[in-house]
Design a protein that fits this description.
With 277 residues, this protein is an alpha/beta fold. The protein has 7 helices and 20 strands. It has a 7-stranded mixed beta sheet. Strands 9-10-13-14-15-18-19 form a 7-stranded mixed beta sheet. α6 crosses α7. The N and C termini lie close together (5 Å). The mean pLDDT is 95.
Length: 277
């Protein structure tokens, strides 16, 4: 499997012209199938793909991990670049989502070409090796409340239960590679959901862990306590995961704390990075 980071919060790749932004978009190649996971918060991932020599029209589709603007904001640019392109997501990405009272949902224009959206429920298999796993929302609302993430329901804001979010599992010769762009439900819950479907080993995790926050002075902090980070690291060890590529909403502080616990298996995502799993 080959993964290229089309856009992320950082850019450490020495290629002139690459853009970075608060967002995430990944180019995934496995067994002859090419997919895009998320579109960042603007159309910049399209320009980055050109610089990286990637032809987005070769993608089977765009997979949208969840509704937030920093993963859906480039859908319009994708449609313009790829006239035959399609988007696969949960239908709930059309709902309205908030961080506190700030709207963070997908831009309305993204849904103007509704015939190009294909909505999935529960677990769906793509191309024999790609699986889209939907959350079971009945036990996740408390996590939305803790993180001040809400959705509009019947005219009122209620804690987000992340029904709009999917995890991508890919079968490889080394084991499963799990993609969770923000892992809002928590890594432990995500791995448990994967385990309910698959018995094969999990080789790698790629995405974000939603550890980034700010204190009252605006300085970056890790929103997880040390015991919670210990539990996260223990879950990774328990599954014998050998590679962890994380970035975006993980934050620099959260990344450093997790790397302290897990060592060299933890690597940073950055715009323009290509790696093989």
């Amino acid at each position: 499997m080959k993964v290229t980071v089309l856009i992320e919060n950082t850019c450490e790749t020495p290629l002139e012209g690459l853009q970075k932004e608060h967002g995430l978009s990944l180019w995934i190649e496995q067994a002859g199938t090419k997919l895009i996971l998320d579109t960042g918060s603007s159309g910049a991932f399209v320009e980055n793909a050109r610089l990286l020599g990637i032809d987005l029209t070769e993608a089977e589709c765009v997979l949208i991990s969840h509704a937030h603007y920093d993963h859906t904001g480039g859908i319009g640019a994708y449609f313009k670049e790829c006239p035959e392109g399609k988007v696969v997501a949960r239908k709930e990405i059309q709902d309205l989502f908030y961080s506190g009272d700030r709207f963070i949902g997908a831009p309305t224009m993204a849904f103007m070409n509704s015939s190009r959206f294909f909505y999935v429920e529960k677990t769906v298999k793509l191309q024999e090796i790609f699986f889209l796993i939907s959350h079971k929302p009945d036990h996740l609302a408390h996590i939305g409340e803790r993180n001040h993430l809400y959705k509009m329901q019947e005219g009122s804001l209620v804690p987000d239960d992340f029904l709009h979010e999917i995890t991508v599992a890919v079968k490889t010769e080394k084991g499963l590679v799990i993609f969770s762009s923000c892992c809002h439900s928590g890594l432990k819950n995500t791995l448990q959901e994967v385990r309910q479907i698959f018995t094969r080993p999990i080789y790698a995790f790629v995405g974000g862990l939603h550890l980034k926050g700010k204190d009252e002075q605006g300085r970056e902090i890790c929103t997880y306590s040390d015991p919670e980070l210990d539990e996260m690291a223990a879950a990774i060890r328990r599954e014998k995961i050998q590679k962890v590529y994380i970035g975006h909403c993980t934050g620099a502080v959260g990344f450093a704390k997790l790397k302290e616990r897990l060592g060299d298996i933890v690597e940073p995502l950055t715009t323009g990075l290509t790696f093989e799993l």
